[in-house]
Records
---
Amino acid sequence: MSPRNPKFYLTTPIYYTNGLPHIGHTYTTVVADTIRRYKRMRGYEVVMTTGTDEHGVNVERAAKNAGVSETAFVAKMAAEWRALWDELGLTADEFVRTTDLHHVRTVQWLFRQCRENGYVYKGHYTGQYCIYDNAFVNDAKPGDNCPDCGRPTETVTEENYFFKLSAFQKPLLDFYKKHPEFIQPESRRNEIVSFVEGGLKDLSITRTTIRWGIPVPGEEPHVFYVWFDALTAYLSAVGGPEFDKRGMWPADLHLVGKDIIRFHTVYWPAFLMAAMLPVPKQVWAHGWFLMDAAKMSKSKGNVVLPRPIANMLGMDALRYFLLREVVFGQDGNFSYDALVTRYNSDLANGLGNLASRTVALIEKNFSGKIPKATERKPQDEALAKEVQAAIGEALEGFENLSFARALETIWGVIASADKYLTTEQPWALGHSAEEQSRKATVLWTTAELLRIVTVLAHPVMPASTAKVWSLLALPGSVEAVELDGLRWGQLTPGKQLGPAQPLFPRVDKNEAIERMEAMANEELNPAPATQTAKAGATPAGAAAVSPTSPEKISIEDFAKVEMRVGQIKTAERIMGADKLLKLTVDIGTEIRQICAGIAQYYEPEKLIGRKVAVVVNLAPRKLRGVESNGMVIAAAVGPEGRPVLAGFPDEDVEVGARLK
Ligand code: ME8
């Protein structure tokens, strides 16, 4: 990309590793990915960062419960977060782990800058501390619960290093005034301004009661307060102390949920001001996705997981739903019912139907070649005008992060196309030259409309719009289209359409919901066989597993798992799934199709003939749309959880032999 391209640096929060991603985390990451794609189509050089927040008491405790070291615990969790983002097509450009050496050094460097500039001093602090939110609770008394999560606080006294937050009241208020766009949406800005106007207390930024944290150099046993550590990840992702070299800092946009806005709009700019570093341009705090009117949490049992939805309806459907259903910034309720209803009405009957109808009509009447529009009637001109106006509106929507509005505009165009076809009835026209020419105009107009819809919807629905793009045999790839040059009338006639591809097959609502719920249950409460053994053996089938389960299983439970020696017959990569291989495995009694998350470490050709350990009585499931009937066992090795297949190198074991 040429150096003249403007840069855009955006981030999601660095998520905690004591749980696995649910729809709430997926929402922020989907928004970030959509903005990233949109900005690229507008000519920006974009970097998107996400990552994992791996320090603090919670991790210390979770690792202890799981009987593993903190290092092993976070390595495994980070690998699972990363793998899920990859599986969902949400791979960021930078993934920061707060245990990365480069990040550790950046945090220590930032502290030094603040200290050298006179904003750090040593003191004592006694207060009520919420170990779940990793924060002292201001004004709480012993016995009080945390106002954010409702759980009991603990009284903690420590010798700490303090950050002179109080010195930043005026600089922050001046900054908010000068940059009213810094905190979005407006309502949140008012909230923060009044909070800061109410006075700022100095903030303790080191801890001695916690062991699992980044050490303060020369001041052991002090470790950094998790928020001083975590926020700095945004800077370490793009160069840390050497951020100038990469040219991405300051961040253009921090996307966060409303729960963590204060950390991002008060503490973070203050830390940066103290270190004399540039401050981010904008923090956008969106609302929460609620389930049964409550914030999702695993302990309440109301979490919704992304993978079952992606497997059942496709990731594009989930992306569309998340962005269309709720006005960005507000809370919204998640329901499977609403999800499937939108899928059937907007995607199967809407975009999917328009694409298949257009293609079928062009196939039938023009042997699959895009016809040439000849004489245009007022209704054709009117539609063209409407679409041209919609381009501007949709882009404005994306620009302001009004995703629901942008999508409403785009889907308004789809509805107009349906109406246009119903009135013009190209299928009812005959074969006279005049009727043939009318048909050509109507179908060119519809195909052109479909092209524009495809481009506009691309940032939200990357996979399906790429399919429509090849269906319309358009040149290059849809993500390379420059949005600034998008106009009505650019569709070239004469091209042969590409092969038909299913986009959004209609689903039966009840059946789809049942299946998604069953998959979610399986993922949240995995059968014993799919839980991680403490030695580190992990299923290679990429299932999310709970590393924290302390229970032991009985021999009867173990006996429920049927494992056999299998022999790999074929192995191939799966389009669009970087990590998965599709295997066929001879298990003695039959040949099974099994997906395994080993593609980044094993060449498919080299696997043929290899004997592996297979769980054969696992319920079949779909991974990236491909049925997997069983599971190949692998060990998870190193910090990334590199899979190493369990095998039988020394003995000539018979295929189908039982493991016991
Ligand atoms: O707070 N609806 O991590 P976290 C919408 N590590 N968004 C939701 C959501 C919901 N129900 N639940 C979670 C942390 N989110 C810190 C961040 S950043 C330097 C450190 C999203 O794992 C939303 O973006 O608790 C929220 O702010 C974030 O996940 C919290 O993730």
---
Amino acid sequence: MTPEEVEKSGLLAIELAVTPDELRTVETDVLGKRSALSGLNQQLGRMPAEERKDAGRAINAVRVRLTAALADRREVLEADDRRRRLEADRLDLTEVVGAVPRGHLHLVDQARRQLEDVFVGMGYSVAEGPEIETDWHNFEALNMPPAHPARGMWDTLYVKLGEPESTLLRTHTSPVQIRVMTSQPPPIYIVAPGRAYRRDTPDARHLPVFHQIEGLVVDRGITFGDMAGTIEAFTTAYFGPGITSRLRPSYFPFTEPSAEFEVTCIFCEGKGCRVCSQSGWIELGGCGMVDPNVFEAVGIDPEEWQGFAFGFGIDRCAMLRHDIDDIRHFISNDIRFLEQF
Ligand code: 2NL
């Protein structure tokens, strides 16, 4: 083979290699010890001296060009190879995977927070206390001595601890207010939201565990009018404009005078319907001026301080606002119900 032929076939082989691996084999074939090029070099020795120089230069030039061609081809093939690997490894960051599904607060907790917000907006603080209580905090301090007939208003769940019937699950959140009054001086503006317990058989309107929020104000010169205005303000803030409140006389051992408060029926907006028995009003909770006996029990002078208190069910509030017909939905753990709110 002539140097030109060696070059031509070498360049062709280089061009035909399609991977860096193949090119390495071609390199050995084209430039290695057993290559045609090396063969030409070996022939040099048998040449006449005057031809040897030119022939040697020609062979060397072929080696230089083949080496350059190999380097060029290697660069192209390695770039190709890199691009293919990157393409295969690429993370598609544009892929839409959707939001991670998140839960949310139970409707009763949402209602509790909204009610807290309404009262905090009126300058109240939120107070908390234990759910297991003493008879004194739950009953006696609230003007219900042992054997008082009013205790029959609550079906109490007792805890087997200490003297019989001395420890119980609180039947309302009033003991929280008793604790606040025995631990800090007036003026007091608080709401006490939380769980309360009664020995009830579950039905559409009752559960043995329910949620209550009670409010307590103790200050100088507090009147029944302040109470009515506070209840009116909270009703409109929570249920919306157009919903107002009214009071009707009632009885509680811990308030005197006492009242029940009602709100405009949210289903018929006061026109009268089946839900409100055509009255246009729905009963929500109770309220009244703190009985002087309660103040005496906690060591507050009823001549100097006056106050009002009120209480209502958080569950019932949420049921009214969202048209829920059975309190047991709240604890049935049916995700289809819970997800609606
Ligand atoms: C109702 C009625 C009421 C109170 C709760 C109260 C608390 C203290 C002193 C006096 Cl420490 N009163 N709380 C007063 C009147 C009514 O709740 O129907 N709740 C669901």
---
Amino acid sequence: MKKTWWKEAVVYQIYPRSFNDSNGDGIGDLNGVTEKLDYLDELGINIIWICPMYKSPNVDNGYDISDYQAIMEEMGTMEDFERLLEEVHKRGMRLIIDLVINHTSDQHPWFVESRSSKDSTKRDWYVWRDQQTNWECIFGGPAWTFDPKSNQYYLHIFTKNQVDLNWENEDMRKAVYEMIRWWLDKGVDGFRVDAINHIKKEYSDMPNPKNLPYVPAWEKFTEVEGLQEMLAELKEKAFSGYDIVTVGEANSVKSHDMEQWISEHEGKFNMIFHREALEAASDEVNGGLDVEDLREVLDRWQKAAHGVAWNSLYLENHDRPRTVSIWGNDRDYWFESATALGCMYFFMQGTPFIYQGQEIGMTNAPFDDIDMYNDIETKNMYRYNRKEGVPHEDLMKIIKTISRDHARTPMQWNSRKYGGFSTAEPWLAVNPNYKWLNVEAQKDDPKSIWSYYKKMIHLRQNWDVLVYGTTNLTDSGCPDVYAYVREDRYTKMLIASNLSERPCTWNTPYDAELLLTNYEKRVKGVLQPYEACIYFMKKEIYG
Ligand code: GLC
Ligand code: CA
């Protein structure tokens, strides 16, 4: 495979609203990110991905953009952004930004103009219909909203304030490409491209045997026939000619469709985020991890990508609960399970992404009160289900496991008030465990989750085989142990993570040299609960 900077990189995702508040208004901001660049540099990060910082009314925390070429007031100014970019580059790191082009805010001047009248020159930049289809939107409720002034319905697959752009309209597409190139000319190093599997729609009703008011309509706006042609144009007219990295958010994609999305010969992006593994392996409501399912899916992606494409590797992001809470054990094996899960995904073929706070093992928030939550998805889900009569307690149980707010509580920097995130009360409450779970408590402790992550990053950056080698599962004999081998002409590495509380009988491979483990006291012939190890193996013997 061709060697490239973004394949060798480790990416850190920042949710700026929750990362660091520089001016004491309780909201994280761009200068707050700049202040922490040395922190990220010290951890070993190469690429920073920052979630939306554009002008936005914040219905979905910036994923509803009202001006693509301006910065949200609470985040700072365009100069702040430029300084951030410059400071990132000074440290030899790169910065990628979120590109939200499936929809805009209903406050975007394009939409304001579009809704002003049926004859507007921008009417067709969005989707207007006399008749709505029976679709439900992703965050609950109908996917169409009636506009009494112009007497038609407009489409929104997320919330009614996130209006879908009409990708069939050439002028609209041109405006979007121009905007993208404007950012590239500014020097950003690429994009994470939001919800990009949804830009093409098929406007027909869903079958509705149960006579629901609205029907989940995923297949009508996900990977619809003709999407790939649209993406090819996006790549050619917006991305081509720059040395950048693009990562498409395309949750629905399965491994057998990988080629058209990300292969080196016909892919439209360098990587995508899919959700197949996370979905297959989790019990959303009760938590818990099915290691066999996880292994089946991830191995399929590893094999399909071999020599063809490049994987993105991630456990967490701003849309998911904390892994140590849902897949690990954040009570009795907090350190062990956080590091074992880290070790499991970090050394596969692909580029690893770390979500802010993951490197210190941040956990789900214990909020019991629905008013402590902020996320529009969580709130809508609660509201719509209550209306249908689902009991409060049942909903709270789900929310406490899966709400997106678990990933969005402020970053825990130290044990001072508000976790050192801000001097004022934050927009979303800090997880009360910040008193002991924070960066300051871990950074100088060689036995912390932070130090383990730092060592993993270092290992990956120092061993070519961990980037470009082949990946093959190896059988440990225990179903809950995820073990695989990376190998190239010169080197062979074995990675084994026990992802359960059950010890596994395990014989250290003969002549293997241990490079990293999360257990100080090892027991011969056993992988202890959540024990994770990386071994270097002499190639002459095994090759
Ligand atoms: C993506 C984002 C999510 C957002 C949605 C709508 O899935 O990751 O946070 O709510 O798109 O833009
Ligand atoms: Ca602030």
